[in-house]
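Thread: "does anyone have the structure for this chain?"

Original post by V.I.:
We have the sequence but no experimental structure in hand. Need at least a predicted one for the grant figures.
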Amino acid sequence: MSDPTKGVKAKVVMERFYFDEDMSGVTVSWKFTGVHTTKCPAPYNAYNPTGQKLTLYGMSYHQFNMNGQLLKKMTVFDNQHVVEVLGGKKTARW
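Reply from O.Q.:
Generated one for you, tokens below.
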């Protein structure tokens, strides 16, 4: 059997889930780890791949209606940390 993670250079781990009292929304804390091997999408596309490791922590909130359709989505992370690591000014915490 082949290893499904072979060649994978990034992963996201969902660390904690917090549900609204009425169960209409959920807040998720997450951790992204990866290696900067290809051009990133905008607004980070100004940075050439460095091979640097990157660890990023963040939180996302999703709220749904009674039919399960997404009403609201918000994601928060340290943008300055990403810019400094991709720009080679900072070493990633890994």
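V.I.: this helps a lot. DSSP finds one helix and four strands in the chain.
O.Q.: and Residues 10-86 form a domain with the Nuclear Transport Factor 2; Chain: A, fold (CATH 3.10.450.50).
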